[in-house]
Every structure is written in C-alpha cells, then in structure tokens.
C-alpha cells in the first residue's frame, strides 16, 4: 500500500486513485489546498497497484535527446489566443480531424481549473492559454483509457507529472495516444487561486497570459462586476507569488518528471530568447519552443500548418531554465500558507514579502518554530 513521509513525494497526478481496483483511494485537499491520496485501509486489499503506478516512486529515464524547433502557428487569431506560438491547437486539431479526443485544462464553473476532454474543433478553445493553477484531473485517466481501448486517437495534454502519471496508469503503450506536455515552472495551489478571486464577484473573463500588449511582458486580464483589470505580469501579486515559488506544490521542488524523466512525446514551451537566437522570426506575438522527445511523431509535426525552424537544444534551454531546473523552496513559503487561511491571499502575500521590520521579525521567529 502506498505511503509517503513527505508532501514533496506526491505530485497529485491521481494515477494511484485511478488504478485502485477497490476504489478506496480518494484525493483529499490538504491545508495548502493541494490534493493528496487518502486510503481507506479497511477496504484496501494490499494489491500494490497504487505503488506500482506512482511516477514519483518509479521515475523513468528519457530515452532520446529531443529534436528542437521554434514554431509559429500560421493562424494569427489562434496564435493570439494562445500563450506561446499556438502549437498546442495545431496538434489538437490534427487529432480531432482524425476522429479523436483531446484532453486539456480549462476553467470550471467557479473559475477553478479542471481537466476535461472534447471531441470537436470548437471545443478546443477552452484549453487554449496557460492557467496557472493545478488542475483537478477528475476521471481523466479512466476516460483516456476508455477511449484508447475503443481504438480512438487521443491527445492528452498537461504538466510533465500528469503525463508521467497517465503513462504509468495505462501500463502499456498505445499507438493512438499522443502526449503533449507544457514546460512547467510549477503549479500554484487551487486554494491560493480561490482566495485571490474571493473579492471578485460576477467574473466573466480571465486570461493569465494576454498578449494585448505583446507576448513578452504579458498581462493578466480579469473582467468582473463591470470592472476590467489589465495587470502587467510583473505587477500581478498572483503571478509574483507563482513565479517566486511561494504558492506552488511541494513536489515542484523535487520534480519527478522534468526533462530527463519526461514521458511525453512532445514538450511545448515559450521560446524565450528567440529574439536573440533568430530575431527575424520574432514579432512579439508568440513563438513556441517544441521539443520532440519521440522521433516517431516528427512526421506529424511536419504536417502542421505552421512555420518550423530547427534549433539547437542547449541554445534553447539557455533562455528557459524552468524546463530542466527544479527550484528551491522559498524560506517563507510555509509562513505564507500559514497566513493564507487567516488573512486571505493579498495580506498573506504582502506580509510575506514586505521589508517592514516587524513583519521581518515575525517571519524570522516563525521560521525558528
Ligand atoms: C502551470 C504552468 C506552468 C508553465 N511554466 C512554463 C515555463 O516555466 N516556461 C515555459 O516556457 N512555459 C511554461 N508553461 C507553458 C506555456 O505557458 C504554454 O502553455 C505552452 O507553451 C503552450 O503554448 P501554446 O501557445 O502552444 O498553446 P496554448 O493554447 O497556450 O496551450 C494551452 C495548453 O496548456 C495546457 N494547460 C493550460 N493550463 C494548464 C494547467 N493548469 N495544467 C496543465 N495543463 C495546462 C492546456 O491543456 C493546453 O494543452 C507553463 C504552463 C503551465 C500551465
Ligand atoms: S494496495 Fe491496492 S487496494 Fe490498496 S489502496 Fe492500493 S491499489 Fe487500492
Ligand atoms: S504522485 Fe500520483 S500516484 Fe504517486 S501518490 Fe501522488 S497522486 Fe498517487
Ligand atoms: S514542476 Fe514538476 S511536480 Fe510540479 S507540477 Fe510541474 S511537472 Fe508536476
């Protein structure tokens, strides 16, 4: 039966809960708002399946050195709606056109982030754009297996650890499965996201990565109750908490699935640095970095309606350390979460980051507890 001693040993992929033949594993929210498996030991028959599929207990070593491209979707409208160069949509359209199913992360009813699937081209728009919150997988792994067992084409997109969990859960390779991982800096807590949204009533639009003022220096847009906020990423407290790693999951400080352990066919990311490497293709509307981990999918990539520019692996990584690098846990992360429930996101963030002498003293004392 699955046990772990430290929260960093669980990325929340749901492979264990999805595989359990007795359905005695539930994903339960902890104090920080992340989901962890909880086993009903009175029902467990100790079959060991949950341990077998855990990607943290069984990381794999990537087999191939990726082939790298810069890529830009020829459809400028779709590219503007996407976070980078709009390459996800092209892979997804290809799957749908073959009668397949696409899984991705979208907003739920309460602006929470959930994994869902679609079988239509129109249904793809909700997956476009990065949502900087850990998505709730629901029954996505079981649904994926069901479609694959029916012989359908499936594109599953998600973070590297979600793909690793899915691959372990499936326990065999399916020729009709294409896995697309997004480069992953880390995933913020759904509780932090809910707290951030709590004073915003009647929300009708959220975009974490608007290109209204350009791809580099992106803006976060929120429309609610007659207000429209367009916040530069460098000034959004939510994005600052994410990028400074205060709000991300403990497993992100010991990531089990980044590049050398990736199980995906292809990784997509922002091609930061393209303005240095190949300035003539940078129009500040978004360029994707595409790393093909499985050379069998290269013919698929060459069929996409996009501009493709071969690149050097090391050169591309130089500008995007999050693809390989796992970051250190900030000293005040626990302090931030301890304040979150009591004071709400904004106060917790400000008290965690301010230079005010009293707050600094309180933080130092808290760290010593
Ligand atoms: C939490 C997170 C962290 C990221 N960190 C980095 C980074 O450090 N460096 C970098 O270069 N790129 C990062 N990205 C990826 C990048 O922002 C783009 O999503 C990626 O380049 C795809 O862009 P696109 O233009 O092809 O398509 P888009 O249409 O923008 O792609 C959307 C894709 O992202 C997936 N997605 C969106 N939100 C989530 C989520 N919460 N969980 C799982 N999948 C999600 C969708 O399912 C879809 O596959 C991150 C994305 C996320 C979600
Ligand atoms: S050991 Fe088997 S029955 Fe017990 S929780 Fe794990 S998968 Fe379920
Ligand atoms: S990493 Fe995934 S499989 Fe392992 S314990 Fe966590 S949810 Fe279960
Ligand atoms: S950083 Fe690693 S553990 Fe964290 S969400 Fe991304 S892939 Fe998963």
Give a short synopsis of this structure.
The chain is of the alpha+beta class. It has 14 helices and 13 strands.
Report what the structure shows.
There is one protein chain. This protein is of the alpha+beta class and 369 residues long. It folds into three domains: 7-53, 2-Layer Sandwich (Alpha-Beta Plaits), CATH 3.30.70.20; 67-189 and 247-323, no CATH class; 331-369, no CATH class. It is 30% helix and 21% strand. The chain has helices spanning 15-19, 49-53, 76-81, 87-97, 140-149, 160-170, 190-197, 237-243, 274-277, 298-303, 313-318, 333-343, 345-353, 357-368; strands at residues 25-29, 35-39, 67-73, 101-107, 113-118, 154-158, 177-182, 203-210, 219-224, 227-232, 266-270, 288-292, 306-311. The mean pLDDT is 95. It binds flavin-adenine dinucleotide (FAD) and iron/sulfur cluster (3 copies). The site of one iron/sulfur cluster (SF4) has 14 residues, from helix 2. Residues 11, 159-161, 184, 186-187, 249, 251-252, 255, 257-258 line the site of one iron/sulfur cluster (SF4).
């Amino acid at each position: 039966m699955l046990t772990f001693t430290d929260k960093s040993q669980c990325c929340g992929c749901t492979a264990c809960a999805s595989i359990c033949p007795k359905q005695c594993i539930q994903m339960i929210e902890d104090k920080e708002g992340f989901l962890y498996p909880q086993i009903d030991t009175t029902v467990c028959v100790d079959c060991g399946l949950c341990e077998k599929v855990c990607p943290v207990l069984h990381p794999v070593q990537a087999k191939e050195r990726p082939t790298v491209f810069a890529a830009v979707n020829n459809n400028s409208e779709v590219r503007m709606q996407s976070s980078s160069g709009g390459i996800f949509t092209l892979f997804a359209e290809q799957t749908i056109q073959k009668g397949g199913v696409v899984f991705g992360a979208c907003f739920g009813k309460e602006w929470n982030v959930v994994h869902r699937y679609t079988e239509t081209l129109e249904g793809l728009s909700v997956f476009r754009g990065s949502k900087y919150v850990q998505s709730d997988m629901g029954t996505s792994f079981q649904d994926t297996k069901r479609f694959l067992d029916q012989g359908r084409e499936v594109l599953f997109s998600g973070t590297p650890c979600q793909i690793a969990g899915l691959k372990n859960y499936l326990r065999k390779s399916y020729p009709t499965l294409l896995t697309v991982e997004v480069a992953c800096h880390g995933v913020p807590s759904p509780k932090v996201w809910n707290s951030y949204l709590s004073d915003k009533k009647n929300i009708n639009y959220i975009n974490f990565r608007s290109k209204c003022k350009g791809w580099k220096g992106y803006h976060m847009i929120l429309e609610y109750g007659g207000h429209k906020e367009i916040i530069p990423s460098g000034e959004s407290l939510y994005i600052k908490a994410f990028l400074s790693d205060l709000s991300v999951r403990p497993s992100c400080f010991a990531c089990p699935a980044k590049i050398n352990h990736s199980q995906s066919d292809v990784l997509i990311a922002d091609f930061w640095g393209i303005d240095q490497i190949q300035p003539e293709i940078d129009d500040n509307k978004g360029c994707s970095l595409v790393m093909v981990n499985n050379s069998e999918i290269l013919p698929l990539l060459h069929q996409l309606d996009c501009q493709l520019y071969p690149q050097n692996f090391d050169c591309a990584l130089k500008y995007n350390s999050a693809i390989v690098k796992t970051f250190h846990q900030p000293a005040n992360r626990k302090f931030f979460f301890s304040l979150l429930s009591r004071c709400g996101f904004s106060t917790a963030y400000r008290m965690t980051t301010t230079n005010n002498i009293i707050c600094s003293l309180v933080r130092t004392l808290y760290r010593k507890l």
